[in-house]
Amino acid sequence: MPPGAPAFAPRFGPGPGRPAARRRPAGPYRRLFDIPGTRAFTAGNLLARLPMGMFGVSAVVMIAGAYGSYALAGSVTAAGLAVTALVAPWTARLVDRYGQARIAVPAAALAVLGQLALVVCVWREAPAWTLFAAYAATATCPNTGGMSRARWAHLYRDDPAALHTANSFEQAVDELCFMLGPVLAAFLCSALFPQAGTLGGAFLLLTGVLVFAAQRATEPPPAPRTASGAPLRAPGMRPLLAVFLATGAVFGSMEVVTLAFVDGPAAGAVLALQAAGSCAAGLVYGRVRRSAGLVVCLAAMTVLMSLPLLAAAGTGAVWAVAAALLVAGMATAPTMVTGMTRVQKLTPGGRANEGMTLAVTALLGGIAAGSASGGWTVEHLGPVAGYGVPVCAAALALALAAATAGRGRAPGSASGHAGGRA
């Protein structure tokens, strides 16, 4: 033993003839948050997105309980959805032009005031038209999911693999909020009072947007009005929005048909399984180094969406349909991630928020159309036949995507190096 050496050498660790221990490389999701500020804006975004799954359920419970009419409650929420589809792209355009923090905070504050006005109107049992006016005021709610994706696209514009992982993570967050939001709203409305879901959602929205907007270091720089053309005019964007419209019809029809098929308190849990399958698939998809094509994803969705139809027609058992929905949901996240990546590629530079909001607007329109189609089919042909509607909608989205494959690549797009195939 050399002089000065310790009496007991460490059992582990580097020593004579022993190589230094290698640190295990961080996974792709952990590497996403190496940039300072990403954890904080993600936390704020989670708070702000959770109410998106709360407001609709809370409004229906609150209005139906006070006015005794689910038709009125459904009409109010549908009208609010229509106004949101008109207002959201304009809000996103302002976000791109003046910056996320300057626009998102006042827009969220206006939306919260609309929710509070709705609570007061329902509490005072005001005339029905006031409910429509109050809920329409909530249409200024900023698309925090799109703003978050715009930040990732800005931060990892030169790293295709990281951007693919970020988009997958965002889709998993969407599914998580879809699962937890309605459950939290229903709990608050039943355990406390009917207005509690709306009030809780308003608090989470404003708090989340304030935290999100405070992270200025990760915010994309605002773009002047003349920086680039409108995303809607970008080559290939309109056919892609048609694909999103048909894809939204898959989600809207599946929800209505499943509610009718289960017809009970277990319906929410059965629907949550579809979101759970999508969430899990999204996290796995984010670890894949190269994304699949949009046509491939939609082909998988068309095949998997036939499973609930087969389960309902073959067994008629709720458990079988629930298992089929879990598997069918696994096609959702890869399809949405690939589609959103395509939107990022086609969107001109400096207009990322507007481009992704257009995609969300198309989805909302498809959800509304799918809900109406699924409801009509259930009423006239029964719930089992209703499961054919999402299959047809997925097949339509596949046909549209195949017909426009490879069409249009906007130069100077917001994420022209996003990587992957779309």
Automatic annotation (TrEMBL):
Coiled coil: none annotated. InterPro entries: MFS, MFS_trans_sf. The chain crosses the membrane at residues 46-64, 71-91, 103-123, 199-218, 239-261, 267-285, 292-311, 317-337, 358-378, 384-403. It holds the Pfam family MFS_1. The keyword Hydrolase does not apply. Residues 1-25 are annotated as: Disordered. The keyword Hydrolase does not apply. Residues 1-12 have a biased composition (Low complexity). Keywords: Membrane, Transmembrane, Transmembrane helix. This is MFS transporter. The lineage of its organism: Bacteria, Bacillati, Actinomycetota, Actinomycetes, Kitasatosporales.
